[in-house]
Design brief:
The complex is a heterodimer of chains A (299) and B (352).
Chain A: H1 12-37, E1 41-42, E2 48-49, H2 55-61, E3 62-63, E4 73-74, H3 76-108, H4 112-123, H5 130-141, H6 146-153, H7 167-192, H8 196-203, H9 208-236, H10 240-245, H11 253-262, H12 268-294
Antiparallel strand pairs in A: 1-2, 3-4
Helix pairs in contact in A: 1-12, 2-12, 3-7, 3-9, 7-9, 8-9, 9-12, 11-12
Chain B: E1 3-14, E2 17-28, E3 32-36, H1 43-51, E4 58-63, E5 66-67, E6 78-81, H2 93-103, H3 108-121, H4 137-149, E7 155-159, H5 167-184, E8 187-192, H6 195-201, E9 204-209, E10 212-217, H7 219-224, H8 229-234, E11 239-249, E12 252-256, E13 262-266, E14 273-279, E15 284-287, E16 293-302, E17 306-313, E18 318-324, E19 337-342, E20 347-349
Parallel strand pairs in B: 3-8, 3-9, 6-7, 7-8
Antiparallel strand pairs in B: 1-2, 1-4, 4-5, 9-10, 11-12, 11-14, 12-13, 14-20, 15-19, 16-17, 16-19, 17-18
Helix pairs in contact in B: 2-3, 2-4, 3-4
Classes of the chains: A mainly alpha (299), B alpha+beta (352).
């Protein structure tokens, strides 16, 4: 085959080089550095001392008393932060799915021309930085914000609803931040869906719900799974929403890592260890999902 | 005879456009009935209204004497073979065929057995565990057929099921479909734009155009006794001549041909005046001179089994003659003046 002709694969390697370089430089190397740091010793002014130890992980899982000489007990503080983060991310994912699926379905079933307009509208919030949007959300939800003022003006409530600094506010923030990541992949899947299949199901005596369960959902599942991953994974490590909308009781993994790396009482190996544990959890979740997609259902 | 489906003054409107203008039709039980027409004539809309995918704007559809207006598609004892098959891509061939039975609550072993029988009937037993994407178009077509027949519907609706297949396969499937219909005794309602398909398989055909039924009858009647220009022209090939009708008596018209000859022919009208005459090109013989119509040979087209002789009449109209390509035929050279003799029943006077 002539060089440069369509289908010529000899150019593939050089063309992929930038991609591999970026992934290598900005993903593999930092992850390797971070994993390495998690096994090093804490340097008190920030940074690390090159002595290998498992103490960061030990600190995460076990409580050995103030001077480290007691019998190790399981340390719940950090595990509960993880548990809360997973819970928050799961709730955010479910909320996004409940709202995102009908939205995506609606858009995908519009005539081709208006679909572009709807998709455009979904992406509009991304013109404004997430930080600014999250701060605005705080202004909107706070005691003296428009929401509470309006509710009090209408006489529905006497005292402002305490929304800011609660789990609920964090929930709203996560939901709002990541909703488009749910809508877009589901839209892509529904758009490819052949609606004649729904007719075929109805023709073969399936009710609407059965058709949805037996035919529609299995076929748009890849989109749903992609959407859930795109919401769940960033929600798990989210930092802005819990930081700006939540309070001390809504501490999440992102804030914990941030505090360890940037804070004056920071502990780099510990922060790195938390990040490695988070990453491991995400990987396990990804593997489970991958298995869920490829597994064939017996009929 | 018992009616499987009865359409009474069925009208379908989309906003201000009317797709179906009051269609009344009776489809008999155990009949292979074809809705034939060009694309956009409303045949598929009619089929989809019977299946329940489209609402009926006005009028009534009866299924075995029972109104089905308010019933969802899953409440109607009819099954559809879709144009592009619409097989469930995530299910095996067997599961596709068993789907309708599963929805009806038939237990696993029974529905598997029955689906297996259906696959045997369409000669696909070896493919039960494949996925639809691993089958050829013709095989997918058979799976769609087996899937629609498995729940034993009272009526099977087929929406241009052969249009995506290549010619050889299409011809083979025609015979198979007809056989299947006779074996199962199920009423088939078949939608197609292919007149050959309609003629070869149907017990009766309804020819449709622009949302109206133009003519209903057995294939022979549709072909040999078309009622109007649309039917005559759409089914097969024909020569249409505008002629003067002197009188119509007892279904027979006295017609003046362009050359001045007078003939008597069956008529689809009772009124004298100007009408169109349909003359099938294969019902003519070619002589040197004489005959009812005279013309000049313009061109001879070789079609393999046939020869098409394109002539021009003295009035200026083109006129086709089909001759069977046999050794006995003397092929006239272009420019020759010929006389065309009408066989018995070659001409038919149309209503318009």
């Amino acid at each position: 085959m002539a060089r440069g002709a369509p289908g010529d694969r000899s150019l593939l390697a050089p063309l992929l080089l930038p991609t591999w370089a970026v992934i290598g430089l900005f993903m593999v190397v930092p992850v390797a550095v971070m994993s390495l740091y998690s096994f090093l010793t804490r340097e008190f002014r920030g940074g690390v001392d090159w002595t290998f130890t498992l103490s960061a992980y030990d600190q995460f899982f076990f409580d050995r008393g103030l001077f480290g000489d007691e019998r190790p007990r399981l340390e719940w503080a950090y595990i509960s932060i993880f548990w809360r983060s997973i819970w928050q991310a799961a709730v955010a994912t479910v909320l996004c799915l409940l709202v995102g699926f009908p939205t995506a379905w609606f858009i995908a079933t519009r005539p081709a021309r208006s679909r572009a307009v709807w998709l455009f509208l979904v992406t509009v919030p991304y013109w404004v930085n997430l930080l600014i949007r999250t701060v605005s959300l705080r202004f909107l939800l706070r005691d003296t914000g428009p929401l509470n003022q309006a509710l009090m003006g209408l006489g529905l409530i006497d005292v402002p609803l305490p929304i800011v600094n609660t789990n609920f506010a964090v929930q709203v923030g996560l939901f709002y931040s990541y909703l488009p990541f749910m809508v877009l992949p589901i839209y892509a899947a529904v758009e490819r869906y052949d609606f004649a299949l729904s007719e075929a199901a109805a023709d073969l005596y399936a009710s609407r719900w059965t058709a949805l369960r037996e035919v529609v959902l299995p076929l748009v599942k890849p989109g749903i799974v992609a959407g859930c991953l795109l919401v769940f994974v960033p929600s798990l490590g989210a930092f802005l929403a819990p930081d700006l909308l939540g309070g001390a009781k809504t501490f999440m993994i992102g804030s914990l890592i941030d505090e360890q790396i940037k804070g004056s009482q920071g502990n780099w190996p510990f922060g790195a260890a938390v990040a490695v544990i988070l990453m491991t959890l995400v990987l396990i979740a990804l593997l489970l999902y991958a298995r869920a997609i490829t597994r064939e259902r017996p009929a | 005879m018992h009616s499987a489906i009865e359409l009474r003054q069925v009208v379908k409107r989309y906003g201000t456009t009317t797709a179906i203008h009051g269609v009344t039709l009776g489809i008999r039980d155990n009949e292979f009935f074809t809705l034939l027409g060009p694309s956009g004539c409303g045949k598929t809309t009619l089929l989809r209204m019977i299946a329940g995918f489209e609402d009926v704007t006005e009028g009534e559809i009866l299924l075995f004497d029972e109104g089905i207006a308010g019933r969802e598609p899953n409440q109607r004892p009819v099954n559809t073979v879709f144009q592009h098959y619409a097989l469930f891509p995530h299910m095996s061939v067997l599961d596709n065929v068993a789907f309708g039975l599963k929805m009806k609550g038939v237990d696993l072993s029974t529905r598997r057995a029955r689906a297996g029988q259906m696959l045997e009937m369409v000669h696909l037993s070896d493919f039960a565990d494949r996925m639809p994407s691993q089958l050829s178009g013709g095989q997918q077509q058979r799976v769609a057929l087996a899937r629609a027949l498995a729940p034993e519907p009272k009526v099977l609706l087929l929406d241009e099921p052969l249009s995506a297949l290549d010619l050889k396969l299409r011809q083979a499937m025609r015979v198979e479909l007809k056989q299947l219909q006779e074996e199962t005794g199920i009423t088939f309602v078949f939608v197609t734009h292919d007149q050959e398909e309609a003629l070869t398989m149907s017990d009766r055909i309804a020819v449709m155009s622009s949302g109206r039924v133009q003519q209903v009858g057995p294939p022979r009647e549709i072909y040999e006794a078309p009622v109007n220009r649309f039917v005559a022209d759409f089914i097969g090939e024909t020569n249409l001549l505008e002629v003067e009708v002197e009188a119509v008596e007892g279904g027979v018209a006295r017609v003046v041909l362009p050359g001045g000859h007078r003939i008597a022919c069956p008529a689809a009208t009772t009124a004298a005046g100007r009408h169109h005459l349909s003359i099938r090109p294969e019902r003519l013989t070619l002589g040197t001179l004489g005959g009812e119509i005279e013309g000049t040979v313009e061109r001879v087209v070789y079609l393999g089994t046939d020869l098409q002789i394109i002539t021009r009449l003295d009035g200026g109209a083109a006129f086709d003659v089909r001759l069977q390509n046999s050794a006995r035929v003397a092929v006239p050279a272009p420019g020759t003046r010929v006389g065309l003799r009408l066989e018995e029943g070659a001409a038919r006077l149309l209503a318009d």
